[in-house]
Amino acid sequence: MSETAFLEVIGLRKEYPRHGGLLFGGGRRPSGVVALAGVDLTVARGETLALVGESGCGKTTLARCILRVVEPTAGRIVLGGDDLTALTGSALRLRRRRFQSVFQDPSGSLDPRQRVRSILAEPIALYASLSRAELHSRVDRLLAGVGLSARHAERWPHQLSGGERQRVGIARALAPEPELLIADEPVSALDVSLRAQILNLLADLKAQRRLTVLLISHDLVAVERLADRVAVLYLGRVVEVAPRQDLFALPLHPYTRSLLAAAPSTTPRRGGRVRPAAPVRGELPSPLAIPVGCPFHPRCPSARSRCREEIPALCPVTEGRQVACFYPGKGPPPPGA
């Protein structure tokens, strides 16, 4: 494990089985759909790393593998020295308090048959032996920490607003006092007026509790607000990793440039110019038919002949930056290239 990494993802692959290709005798040939194609990532303790990319790139699959909700096909996940991929049964359950998640849909992630107090007390009781009074006091403190009052503890989820439900979801994730928080699109299901409140809450909680955060989002406003570094995924591969400010100021991978061009900018560029409009072309290819060579080359305005034949590795280009591109930062090729 890297000396500076708290979370390290090493060569992570996830392949879903499918059937295709007729065999003699009427059978079918099994094959796999690759959702993650050897992902390598590190997250330092106390850092927020954002995962961005279009729907279908593998962001949520990666998060579910880290949480061990989905079993990876190959690779390792190391958290604070513990190889999570080697743990099973009670050993894994014991480590789960170290990593918790906040889900996208606060309505669907809360049990409608439990009051808020029970929802929050349950994960506390799993890891701590407390009296009833101590448990109630802990729940009340959790609610206060996310901006809710003790009165909310006696309500049912359907009696809460969308923003209140997400605050309860965050409180539940914090109940076991985790070190790593995985936030999967934590504001995408909320009204625009509530998003800033939840983003500010997450930023405050990270600082107060010294959390390490893995943020999954297609909302680049949320990424600019919360992330320290950004990893860009495309068809199950990391194509660029950079500090947030560097990536937004000068994206090097053509896919990253296209993502930023398609999103509204919250910060004017130097000289008052806006980001040039060059959104990504075409549709995301099916994982059943990933292009030969660089997976992005059919949509890439900078593709050359080499890109149609070879897969670029994720390599360092400057300090703290990695790009999987043969021509990082380059424009369209000359005729015939």
List strands and helices in order, with pairings.
Layout (H helix, E strand, L loop, with lengths): L4 E18 L5 E17 L3 E5 L6 H8 L7 E6 L2 E2 L5 H7 L3 E4 L3 H4 L6 H12 L4 H14 L16 H13 L5 E5 L7 H18 L2 E5 L3 H7 L2 E6 L2 E7 H6 L4 H9 L52 E4 L2 E3 L14
Parallel strand pairs: 3-8, 3-9, 6-7, 7-8
Antiparallel strand pairs: 1-2, 1-4, 4-5, 9-10, 10-12, 11-12
Helix pairs in contact: 4-5, 4-6, 6-7
Task: Describe the 3D structure.
The structure is a single chain. With 337 residues, this protein is an alpha/beta fold. It has helices at 59-66, 89-95, 106-109, 116-127, 132-145, 162-174, 192-209, 220-226, 244-249, 254-262; strands at 5-22, 28-44, 48-52, 74-79, 82-83, 99-102, 180-184, 212-216, 229-234, 237-243, 315-318, 321-323. The strands form 2 sheets. The protein has an 8-stranded mixed beta sheet with strand order 6-7-8-3-9-10-12-11, with helices on both faces. Helix 4 (116-127) packs parallel to helix 6 and helix 6 (162-174) packs parallel to helix 7. The protein is elongated and about 75 Å long. The relative contact order is 0.13.
Defining key terms:
eight-stranded mixed sheet; alpha/beta
SSE pattern: EEEHEEHEHHHHEHEHEEHHEE
Number of DSSP-assigned strands: 12
- The percent range for strand residues is 15-25%
Name the poorly predicted regions. 22-30, 268-274
Helix content: 25-40%
Distance between the termini: 41 Å
- Structural Rg: 22 Å
Mean pLDDT, as a whole number?
A: 88
Please summarize the sheet with the most strands.
Answer: 8 strands, mixed
